[in-house]
Predict the 3D structure of the following.
Amino acid sequence: MKHCNNAQIAGETSARGGIDDYPSRRESVPQVIPRKDPVVYSNWRQDAPLSEEQTAFYDANGFLSFDIGFSKESRGQLIDEATRLAHEKDELDSNVVITEPDREEIRSIFRVHDLSPIFEKLLKGTRLVEIARFLLGDDVYIHQSRLNYKPGFHGKEFYWHSDFETWHVEDGMPRMRALSMSISLYTNNELNGPLMVIPKSHFEFIPCVGEAPEDHYKSSLKKQEYGVPDEASLTSLAARGGIVAPKGPAGSVTIFDCNIMHGSNSNITPYPRSNVFVVYNALSNHLVAPFGSRPPRPDFLAARGERVVAI
Amino acid sequence: MKHCNNAQIAGETSARGGIDDYPSRRESVPQVIPRKDPVVYSNWRQDAPLSEEQTAFYDANGFLSFDIGFSKESRGQLIDEATRLAHEKDELDSNVVITEPDREEIRSIFRVHDLSPIFEKLLKGTRLVEIARFLLGDDVYIHQSRLNYKPGFHGKEFYWHSDFETWHVEDGMPRMRALSMSISLYTNNELNGPLMVIPKSHFEFIPCVGEAPEDHYKSSLKKQEYGVPDEASLTSLAARGGIVAPKGPAGSVTIFDCNIMHGSNSNITPYPRSNVFVVYNALSNHLVAPFGSRPPRPDFLAARGERVVAI
């Protein structure tokens, strides 16, 4: 794990012109760039939607997990609604429905807050939105929402990544001023391939190695290491912060910073780990042109333009 | 999960002629065949190498996990020896060295008890062998041994299976009178893709669906379900017995019956889960011709003939 020199810390000129504080997918040698943005953008106050301890924990570790206390009825309603959407998938915009590679089975449905009044109520409701507004110190909008079905037996692994790395390079999110919430519809345990986070990893930006200049094509880096964080950096982050899999009953919410390193193992157990997933972004941090060299991804993955509406 | 009718319970005529109590890979419809063999073949006695409670637990659940209390030195010696064998892989019989699909990295080395005096001492030593002799009620020999390297970051998942199903069909092991021991060289935790077992599943033989007769080719079963236990049977077994991932410090040994349903998720953590793996078979249960229709597998996977030597 090599720390950047001052020139790199001061920012690099991006492919799109201008300075890029978080350059990625340009170098063939792993490096680490210290975070240049706050984690919690508000000062804690008595009427904050999180306790002082919760706020401090999130600030220090980059995530926070607690039970939002679903009633049995509201959980049942969410599961029924998820089932209904899955059954009606043929009537939905085919772009927002992602199926498993070799199966008809649904993996995710995007933009659920637009497709279902029940999920709209959950994701635009006061409770979650106030937490997002408080932590991000701004009005917020929904950058992305989705239902993850993750059925048992053949849940795929998801390798380590920082969401911000993708959102910055591919979607044009300028700063680290967004967060995700995952609300579980079933009990999470440690064996059904739960979300794993590396606490404290949100303080460092680990650029992905890849899209190396042509004259570096003989680099000794293995093919598998292109486009993902390098193993030495991950080892170092895990040695410092450990690896945690927040668990809890259905209705547990895990809030995590846009730059925390996270991933999940596969799931061969019969236990599904379906969840509702939402990303809130600060209004002031709305997307601009991508910091990478490709055109932006579709707006069901990353809201832009007229979809940027404060809740 | 459909239980077999009496005719099936009484055994089926195998492809090789004769009655087969545990037919598999012949039907396209999942079924369950009750175990027809004991689990513990000896009566417990004061001088047994396991306590009465341990013996009862193994009998009822099909596995048992405890710390055999490696000294720091002996653990270090085993890890050094595993590293040495990996470095000298080019000098070993290439059949016994299995590398990861797209990598030079070693996944397993077979027949370690023949390759290394240090592993021979561990696997033929009094401690483990006496437990095997006691549980199997017979002299024993090593049916298979291997070192599993399972490095971090890209440990592959291993789907649910009963070892006996394979050993019976592919290798010709007649009865359920064998057991495995996995001795961990590093700490097992719940996040690095540990061995998962379904307690009590050893009481039922779940034939794999597959190699269906040609006139069943239009069966509605999904392709992924051929050659593996069906999802309904797995769900039912897990609903009854739960799923357990035995964990513990380096030097923990997990003993499990040849017919227990087990598997493991992938491992993206940096933490390796290397272990030494050995299968003891009762001398009286030595291999015969496979119960399936194919020729037997090589003897580094399944000892036969002159390799069957009581320890």
Summary: The radius of gyration of chain A is 19 Å. The interface with chain B takes residues 102-103, 152-154, 157, 159-160, 190-191, 193, 196, 222-224, 231, 234-235, 238, 243, 245, 263-271 of chain A (CB under 8 Å). Residues 2-307 of chain A form a domain with the Jelly Rolls fold (CATH 2.60.120.620).
